Each structure stands twice: as C-alpha cells, then as structure tokens.
Amino acid sequence: MDNFPILSALTFLPLISALIIFLFSKNANNKQLFGISITTSLINFILSILLLFGFDKVNANFQFTENISLIPEYGINYALGIDGISLVMIVLTTFLIPICLITSMNSIKNRVKEYVIFFLLLESFVIGSFVAADLVLFYIFFEAILIPMFFIIGIWGGKNRNYAAYKFFLYTLFGSVLFLTALIYIIATYKTADIATLKLILSQNNIEIQKWLWAAFFVSFAIKIPMFPFHTWLPDAHVQAPTAGSVILAGVLIKLGAYGFLRFSLPFFPDASIYFSQLVFILSTIAIIYTSIIALMQEDVKKMIAYSSVAHMGFITMGIFAFNEQGLHGAIMQMISHGLVSSALFLCVGVIYDRMHTRQIIDFGGLTHKMPYYAMLFMIFMLASVGLPGTSGFVGEFLTIIGAFQVNKIIAIIAAIGVILGACYMLWLYARVMFGDIKNKKIESLKDVNIIEFSALGLMAFLVVLFGIYPSLILRYLDSPVLAIINLK
Amino acid sequence: MVIFNLIPELIIFLSALTILMIDVFFGKNLKNKNITLLSGSVIAIVASIYILLSSYGINTDLFHKMFFVNKFTSFSKIIILILLLLTLIISKKFLDSEKKFSAEVIALMMIATSGAMFLISSNDLLPFYLSLELQSLALYILAAMNRKSSESSESGMKYFLLGSVSSGILLLGISFIYGFSGTTNFTDIFTIIQDSMNSDTIILNVGLALGLILVFTAILFKISAAPFHMWTPDVYQGAPTNITAFFASTIKFTMVIVTVKIYFYIIHSMNGFDQILILTAILSLLIGCLGALKQNNIKRMLAYSGIGHVGFIIAGLAASNFEAIRAVILYAIIYASISIGSFAMLVLLINKRKDGSIDESNKEKYSIDSLSKISKNNPVIALFLAILLFSMAGIPPMAGFFAKFYILLSVIKQELYYLAIIAVLTSVISAFYYLRIIKIMYFNESVSKNITINKNNNYGPLLILSIASIFNLTFIIFINPLIAVIANIFS
Fold it and tell me: Are B197 and B270 in contact (CB under 8 A)?
C-alpha cells in the first residue's frame, strides 16, 4: 500500500474512465453513461478520503510524492505531491464532481456521452493541477482545464453561450501565457521546475527580479480568481454555463487562482508579495464593495450569485496577502466555505431553473408556500454566504478580516462594511424570491425538491454548518503548510 | 564511390521518371493504374528511407564540397520522405478524379521532393540555386493541377510569377556574393564573414552583406514569412487540397531546414543580422494572427496561421543559440504533423449536389461553415480535428504547446523578452480562430446540408488524420527521445 501511486490514480482514474466511455459506449443509454461516470467519481472521492487518513498533518513538505523524469535537461519532472492546502482542495473537488454529475441527470438530456466525458476530463485536470509538485506539470494541467470547460459552457450553455465560452477561454489564456513566459524564464535560468527547490532558490532573489515575475504570475491568477478589474468574464461564464458547469466553476476552478497565489506567488516571491500587498488590498476592497453594489442591482439570480462570488474572492485575496497566520487560514477556510456555499447556491438556482426555465428575480415570489424544504436549504446557504456565525462563511470572513486588520486597519474596516452589503443583497434576494404572494401562476404547480436534490443540498448544508461550528476539522490540516509559507517572509 | 551517398535522392528522382514512362507505355492497359503507381512510389520512398537509415551517421562531402552528407541532412531527408509518403497516401482520391494526369501528379511531387533533398545537402550556392529551382518548377505545376478550377490556375500563375521574381532576387544575391567574395561555397563564405567580424580593421564588405540579405530574402519568400507572404493564401486556397497539404508539410519543413542551414552555416556570425530576423518574426506573427481572423475559407485561414507559425520559427532563429536550432526543428516537425493531419481532414470533405452528383469546385466546400454538422455525424473525426486545432493553438498537453515552449525557452534565454511577449500574445489571438472552427463543429447547428464527409474507400486520409492527432495528443511520451535525436544530429 505504501508504494501505491495514489495521486496518479486520483488524477488519471477519471481520464481513463472518460477514455473507456469514449471508446466502448456506442449503444449505452444516458442512465448507463451517468452511472459509469458517477461511479468513477465516487471511487475517486473514496480515494481522496483515504488520503485524509494517510496524511501526516505535522509535515509541511510534499507527501505521497511520485517522481518520473520528463525532460531532464531542464529539470522538468512528472512530480506529484500534496500538502495540507492541496489536500483539502482535492477533497473539495472530488466531493463536488459526483454532486455535479448526479444533479445533471435530470437537466442534461442531449449529448450525454460528451457531457460526462468532459466532466471526467475536467476532474482529472483539476486534481492534476492540485497534486502537481512541478511548475510545468502544474501549468499543463492548469491550462488543459480550459478545454473541457470551453466545451461545457459552449455546448450545454444558455442563449449567449458562444460569447461566454470565448470570453472565458481567451481571457484565461491571456493570463496563462504571461504565467508561461515567467515560468519559462525561471526554467531557463535555474534549470529546474521542482516547486520545493524553486521555493528555496527564488525567494532569495533580489526584489527587482521578484517584482517582474510576481506581476506575470499575478495577472494569470488574478484573472482566474477573478479579481477586480479582471472579473468581467465571470458573470458571463456563470450565467451562460449549465448548472453543473457553474457549480464546478465557482466551487473549484476559480479557487485555482487563489491556490496559485498560495503555492507560487507567496513562497516564490515573498518580498515582492509584501511590496505589492497594498495594491492587492486595494483591488480586493474594490472588488468587495464594488461587486456587492453591482450584485444589488442584478435582475438575474445567477448573475447576482456570480457577482457575490467576486466579492467573496476579494476576502480570499485580502487574507492571502495579509501574509500572516490568521489571514492565510481565513483565506483557505473561505476557499472551502465558498466552494461549498456558492456551489450549493448555484445548485439551488438550477433547481428552480429546471422547473421554471427562468432566472429573473421578478418571475419568482412566494416560493416558500410551495417549496418549504427548498426554502429552508436556500436559507442556510444564503446565511452562510452572508457570513452568519455558526456557518463556515463566518469563519473565513472573520479570520481574513482579523488578518488584514493587523496589516492595514482601514482596509479591514472597509471589508467589514462589505460584509454588510453582502447581507443586503442576499437577504433582499431571498425576500423577493421566497416570500410574498405568489404572482407567477407557474409557481402554483411547482413541486418541492426531489430526493436527489434534497440529499445533495442537505449534505452540503450539513457540512457548511459543521465547518462553521468546528472549523478545526479543516484548519488542523493547514497549520504546518501555512507556517511554512509564513516562515519565508 | 562518391555517388553512393546520393543514392536516396537518385532513387526518388529516377523512380519519378520511371513512373512517367510506365504511364506513357502501359498506362492504358493497367487496371488499377493509380494503385500501381502509388505503390511503386511508396516502395521507392521506403527504399530511400532505408538507405538513409542504414548510412545514418556518415559524414562526407561530394563533388568538391558542393554537397554535404551528415546526420543533419540525413535526418531532415528522412522526415521529408515520411511527409511525402503521408501526402501521397491522402492523394489517392484526387488521383482518381484526375485520371488522365495522375502519373504526372505523383511524378511531380517526387521530383519536387528530390529537389528538396538535393537542396538540403547542397553546400554551394550553385547547386543550391539549381535544386531550389528543380523543386519550385515542379511546385508551380502542382499548384495549377486542378484544371477544372480557375482558382487553381490563378494560384499556379501567381506562384510562378512571384516565385520567378524571388529566384531573380536569389540569383542577384548570389552574383553579389560571388563578385565580392570570389567564392560560392558555404564554408568559404562563412570563414570570410567570420574573419571580417573578428578583426577590428576590416568591416564586412557592403556588397557581400547585400548579397547575403538578398539570398535570405528569397528564402523568406519560399518559407512564406512576412513581408514576403503574399502568395501563400492564394496558393493554399487555389491548389488542390492534397497539394496544399504537400506545400504545408513537406515543402514548409524543407524550407525551414534550408533556412536553418543558410542562417547557421553562413550568415550566423554576421553582426546585426538578427535584427532583420526579429523584424520578420514580429511581422509574421502579427500578419499571421490578424490575417486569419476574418477568413471564411479554411484553407486560407490555415495559410495565414501557417505564416504565424513561421513567425514563431523565425523568432527561434533570431535567438540563434543551440537550443534554438533544436527548438526550430522540433517546431517544424510538429507543425508539419498538424498540417498534414488537418489537410487530410479537408480531403475527406465532399460537396454533394441535391441530385447526388459531386461538385468538384472548391468554393463552398472549404467555407468554415461546412464543418458545422461534423461533431454529430462523425464525432471521432471532429474530435481528431479538435485535437489538432488545440495543438495549433498551443494548449497543453498537445504537441503544439511543447513546440512553442521550446521556442520561447530559447528566445527568453537570449533575453529577447519583448519578442517572447509578442509571440505569446499573438498566440492568444490566434487561439480565437482555432476555437472558431471548434465552435462551428461543436456548438453550431448545421448550416449547409450538402457537404459531408466521404468515408467510403477513403481510409488513407482517415488513417493520416488519426495518426497525426494521436501523435499530437500523446506527444509528451515522445518528447524526450525526439529531442535527443534532434540534439544528436549536430554531434
């Protein structure tokens, strides 16, 4: 068992399953296709749970390492390894993918074969980028994610899907190529792509070099997160993507940007990170305030949640660049929390969209009368998104604000005001959708959530509350990697 | 025997003549003429490759140093022959439709290839010029080979006229070089340039420099680098598709090798020449990516995208370190594989009229919209083409990513950061039009009902398409051995 390449298995199991589906499922019906893909993703989830048990929490180095030489000349290896940060992100990914697939069974009817293939590919690439312990390998996975996501938005998306798919792809690619340029500079200069080694070498660089490299990395990850002013692709992508696409986009993909900051920007360029931290703070607070105000004015439920994502990601970047223990803990906690909460909210929107085929707030009202269970679940996620104490959202926002407060008090105060704005639009949204009289006749005939939807959303609600009450379930995995990052300062 | 080292070239050339003779004397009696002729040419190519492989590593010169045979030339010739083989495999359908002149098509392609092989081996400006003309003259005819289409004639004529001008420039350059240096031998010219660069007193003769620039201009024309790219879109569009594949793979690869050779064997040590390369690279990158944006004809679009790829190759040359040569050759191999795959896909398209007859004209067939039904009716073919397009766009883990990766590595190593930034930004823009084809294949509802994929008895292009795309998809496995082989050819 010790020598079993569990990280490779995690990464390539979905890929192999996708290949098998592609080659051998000529006559399979939709149920069988979903069955195979859901089984695969559940096996993957179990594997990632096994990781949790085998993981050594005290060790800050990469664990479960695997290493095969790819291009020895430049020190590029097929090197895998995880620390606490990647571990929790992997578990989040493997948890969300089966939920995405299960909940798409009702809404996706056409081209199911391609759909499950692209989702499995997506899972494989996302896990690949979390387990990569090599810069080039990370880039390969990071970039490859664009391909399945482009298809998921473009084929099963809404009316304006072409535009959204393009915008998503080109925007992200633009950021990635700057990352690539910086990455190639690093490889050409130091002849190694091993993240652990680079951490030691690069952090000793003088600040001039660090600044340039930091800027190139920053643009790429800031687009991915997305930070203000690079955020404009996200609302389009979310609104046009199918429900499961939005879930995975909000739940995992945009976290990759924050993961990039944690894995590369801070450890590689600590001096530049401190130098630029004020800039990041300002951009983060603009994101928090500005996108919250925009979210207030949205007519479309999904678009509102998309904008709220940008605001929440603002807390994450603020926490990361506070560069202290509370800030980093809070940021990672917020990543997990937002991964659960916003995914659940997008699933909730999907539930009513499948029934009503509209997402305009004005078409709803009085849903509590017809869908009481749904209203209850939605409320939990809504409150978690607002940051109510007792939900995971609170832990993240609280810790990031503490972290920021130690560095820059004004920014922390403004961000705290942003929390109030968040409460404004979420509560107002809830009031308009759930309460009041039923105006739209379609609502009269609505059915409440079915057993699949209820169990998926209920499970997520349980986790949201569990992590809110007992955050150390996650935080204990983060202590040693966070300390390792801070020690580089 | 000295001549022994030229046997691979001679096999190709003589079998081309034999094919013509067989056609003249027995053509009418042969039952499966095209199959017979094709298999004859395949045997010749395989024999030639075998001889090249068995003599791989021999380092020698012939005819008073007019020709050179070493690992570099042998390797390039092997790749060229493989590409010719692939092109012939996808040409079968065209040959069937072109009953009368099918032997000529095969023979001309082989003659052009033998010209290319002589070209790569030549170490003197005179055989260089002669073999370039041998190749070009065959290509002029091939471009005009589709006699039913006026576009094809136009493209042949255009290529011939512009090609003659470039030949004139080449000859002018050669006479300048000979006049001011007294020699036409590459090695001697290289020594003269190096001496004048190393000493403080003697400056490089202006006449010699002008001659070198003129020679290089002619090569840039042949490789279709901006600003000498004008002929490319028209020729690509007009020529029969299999011939376009030949242009985009075999000939492009040959010209890249020739450019590498001329640059590194002669011009390399000339100060300031890299500025010309950088300018050409930037122009090609920009014209390639901006020109392709608005094209509605796939072949035209691929022509412009080819110009962009040449921009990458020349950017690699401008870096002019050892990594760069390797990167350029790797890029050329990968680009050739993508081109041949995507043109093989285009060969499969047919335009059926409502009454069931087949429309041979190119106009409708290669409009981008004609691909709109493919992902539903032929998911595998659509997938293969999508892989090739992602590879061209340079998305990992496809081969195209590694090609660009190595080029950028050498460019950044040379500290040409602005060139690297321009290169990556143009590759983002170019991703737009590759995605456009993918979008049409996967997202759009069908627009044209007439155009379908003809899979019946058309296994050649299918085979090439699948080989090319699987090669591109799984390239990460081949990268190390391939790089090792390429690095070895200079030892």
Answer: yes
Token pair for residue B421? 């930034």
Say if the Cβ atoms of B435 and A139 lie within 8 Å.
no
Distance CA(A378)–CA(A373), nearest Å, equals: 9
B380: exposed, middle or buried (C-beta count within 10 Å: 0-12, 13-18, 19+)?
middle
Residue that has been written with the tokens 């739940």 in this structure: A251
Cα separation, A461 vs A353, in Å, equals 20
Evaluate whether A34 touches A108 at the Cβ level (below 8 Å).
no
Cβ neighbour number for residue A431 with a 10 Å cutoff = 11
Contacts of A73 in chain B (CB under 8 A): 483
Peptide bond into B227 cis (omega under 30): yes
- Are the C-beta atoms of residues A128 and A252 closer than 8 Å to each other? no
| CB of B2 closer than 8 Å to CB of B20 | no
Q: How far is B397 from chain A (nearest CA, A)?
A: 6
CA A371 – CA A363 distance, rounded (Å): 15
Minimum Cα–Cα distance from B431: chain A residue: A170
Q: Are B439 and A170 an interchain contact pair (Cβ–Cβ within 8 Å)?
A: no
Give pLDDT, residue B201: 57
Q: Residue B62 is inside which H or E element, if any?
A: strand B60-62
pLDDT < 50 regions, chain B: none
Does B412 sit within 8 Å of A166, measured CB to CB?
Answer: no
Predicted local distance difference test score (pLDDT) of residue A159: 84
Cα gap B89→B133, rounded to integer Å: 26
Cα A435 off chain centre by: 31
Give B395's contacts in chain A (Cβ within 8 Å): 143-144, 146-147, 173
- What share of chain A in percent tops pLDDT 90? 31
Contact across the interface for B396 and A140, Cβ inside 8 Å: yes
Look at residue A1 and tell me whether its pLDDT is greater than 60: no
What number is the average pLDDT over the span A211-237?
A: 90
CA triple B226-B229-B233, angle to 5 deg: 135
Which residues, in sequence order, are bridge partners of residue B453? Answer: B349
Q: How far is CA B154 from CA B104, B142, B203, B295, B366, in A?
A: 20, 12, 46, 19, 17
Whole-prediction pTM = 0.92
Q: Please tell me the distance from the alpha carbon of residue A400 to that of residue A394, in angstroms, as a whole number.
A: 10
Q: State how far residue A174 is from chain B, nearest Cα, in angstroms.
A: 6
| Residues 6 or more apart whose Cβ sits within 8 Å of residue A348 | A374, A377, A378, A381, A457
Q: How many CB atoms lie within 10 A of CB A190?
A: 16
Please tell me the predicted confidence (pLDDT) of residue B363: 61
Using an 8 Å Cβ cutoff, are B433 and B292 in contact? yes
Top pLDDT among B336 and A228 is at B336
Contact A166 B476 (CB under 8 A): no
What are A82-107's pLDDT values in tens digits?
888 999 999 999 999 999 988 888 88
Q: What is the mean pLDDT of chain A?
A: 88
pLDDT digits (tens, 9 = 90+) for A4-24: 888 888 899 999 999 888 888
**Residues B426/B314, Cβ–Cβ less than 8 Å:** no
pLDDT at residue A57 greater than cutoff 60: yes
Strand order in the sheet with B358-359: B358-359, B349-352, B451-453
| Integer CA distances (angstroms), B338 to B72, B249, B281, in order | 22, 8, 21
Integer Cα distance of A292 and A312 in angstroms: 9
Whole-number Cα distances in Å, A434 to A52, A314, A373, A431: 39, 28, 12, 6
For A71, name the nearest residue in chain B, comparing CA atoms only: B480
Query: Which tokens sit at B347?
Result: 């060969």
Question: Which letter does DSSP use for residue A262 in this model?
Answer: I
Domain boundaries, chain B: 2-488
